[in-house]
Design a protein that fits this description.
single chain, alpha/beta, 2 domains, 6-stranded parallel sheet, two-stranded antiparallel sheet, 8 helices, HAD_2, HAD-like_sf, HAD-IA family hydrolase
């Protein structure tokens, strides 16, 4: 792996032990979209996440007001789930080791408001150079939009100078499509490959990330 100068982190269940009820969020978003009659028959909702359901709706051309309602639903679940969120094991120690040596970025599908609240409450916000929420993206992960936003900010750094780490296939898909090497956290390489994502490595504990820097 080339010399790493920057690291992009997913937030939920990568750095933070999220309490967001993702199944409940997805179910509410699905019910809302179902009422808009946006799904062809058959539609395999099982293989979707909240973000891919929202992107499906965007592709179908939903109105600005409907999109705003989807964002309101997501934000409601995010803000509730961030109450009392704790850190993943080893997150603080890892960030203390990395801070000042690498450009550190948070890249989350959450609203920036929810992300900032959680990161400040857990005391790790000051470690990051940039915190990117969905407001800075043209489309949610698995779109590479957020990664491209960061690339524009750091135009002097090549893509090979970055790595990203996350726990979900949507993190890996977005990273790979942006040309950024992806490390899977908490999920094995075989799990990711089944979803069309090919990480350069997989780690079970955050401290293992240091082996790839």
């Amino acid at each position: 792996m080339n010399e790493v100068k920057g690291i992009m982190f997913d937030m939920d269940n990568t750095l933070l032990q999220s309490k967001i009820d993702f199944p409940a969020m997805k179910a509410e978003i699905y019910r809302y979209l179902l009422a808009l009659d946006l799904f062809e028959d058959p539609f395999n909702v099982v293989d979707h996440t909240s973000s891919t359901l929202i992107e499906h709706a965007r592709q179908k051309g939903i109105s600005d007001s409907s999109y705003a309602e989807l964002m309101r639903i997501a934000a409601k679940h995010e803000l509730t789930g961030m109450e009392g969120a704790g850190l993943e094991n080893g997150a603080l120690e890892l960030l203390q080791e990395l801070h000042g040596r690498y450009v550190l970025v948070i890249l989350t599908n959450n609203s920036r408001e929810a992300a900032l609240k959680a990161l400040h409450n857990t005391g790790i916000a000051p470690f990051f150079d940039v915190i990117i929420g969905r407001e800075q993206m043209k489309a949610l992960k698995p779109s590479p939009s957020g990664f491209e936003y960061v690339m524009d900010m750091y135009s002097g750094m090549t893509r090979s100078a970055w790595i990203s780490i996350g726990d979900s296939w949507i993190d890996g898909k977005a990273s790979s499509d942006a040309g950024i090497p992806f490390i899977s956290y908490g999920k094995g390489i075989s799990f990711m490959k089944e979803r069309g994502v090919y990480p350069v490595a997989a780690v079970e504990h955050l401290s293992e990330l240091l082996d790839y820097l």
